[in-house]
Automatic annotation (TrEMBL):
Residues 33-74, 273-343 are annotated as: Disordered. Transmembrane segments: none annotated. InterPro entries: PIN_dom. Residues 39-49 have a biased composition (Low complexity). Residues 278-289 have a biased composition (Polar residues). It holds the Pfam family PIN_4. This is PIN domain-containing protein. Residues 64-74 have a biased composition (Basic and acidic residues). Residues 80-155 form the PIN domain.
Amino acid sequence: MADVKGPTIASNKMAMSRALGAAFLNHQVQQLEKTATTRASAPRGAPAKPARKRDGETTEIDEEKGRQGGGKAEKDADIIVVDASVLVHAIHQVKKWCRDGREEIVIVPLEALNTLDLLKKGMSSLAQRARAASRVLEAQVGTNQRIRVQRDDAFVLWDEVFENQAPPTGSPEWVRRTICCARWEVNHAADEVDASLVNAGPGKVGGTQPRVLLAVLSQAPEAQSEAVFIPNNHLSASPVPLPAPQTNRHEPRSSGALVALWAAKAGLKVLEVPPTPSAVNGTPRNTSPGGDGAALPPRPPRRPNEDERAKRGGRRNSYLRNGERGSSPVTVRPGAGTGLVERPPAVMAMMEAVAQPSRVVRVLARGEKLEPDT
């Protein structure tokens, strides 16, 4: 009888395994057919969705990538000389010019690089922005042929900027160097564009006079050189007040106000670039009160309610001494359904005796209690 039952069970298991395998294969085939039907019915010319970055910014994909045969995006200018204010506060616009499919030639003055080196030291939000701009330039210069750094001889003298008139005085040296670089690009714009067309390959033909613009921040930002605000920093163990935050003396270089003023006097065309929003999608950032984002108020530490703790019957090591965060010890009521391990009455009596500061309890090594001395 046992010999007959053994082969029967084995055959049933084999049949069940084959049935499950066939059902699994049928399910896979149905899923593949459904996926193929969905892809075939989707329109080919639909624009691509915007990509989401880690920091919350939305990168708009160019329209020419989302559809076939679409026109190219209109360029802002043939040559754009970027000021340090744009690199620090509007790096999103620089990244836009660096994308594939754009035709702008971006010139970074040497004085702008010097400004980034002066601003990127420290832990302020301004220093963080300067370091981010330096990383973007390090990744683009040398790789992207349209992103170039000012050559050592690519400048004009300050007296040659103002033709047929005496040059005005009172401008800082770093402003003069930026204006002289932009004027040289205006005078040699055709050579820069022709060199770019040669590097682009055949099929590119130069047209009208190239347009050169000096990109400057549209509005002066607030002071951002204070240290970054650290949450719960008000709970300091030291009673000595911290020193007042020191502003960076080179911070006016990142405003763009002086460069825009002297560019207008020199007759240069200015492209005003809006600053990058400090918080994307309404996400607050922890910065100093003078920073680019609103400081988050520190959250008070959560403390359990003593009444609720007493109702729950207390927890382990929750017996309070007199004068320490309570006036009476919390005891566990016998028979209460607290879910905790209840201590014997003898242990409870000993714990209550220990909680009394006026009494001295002596216990032997084997656990026997001695009466206190009278």
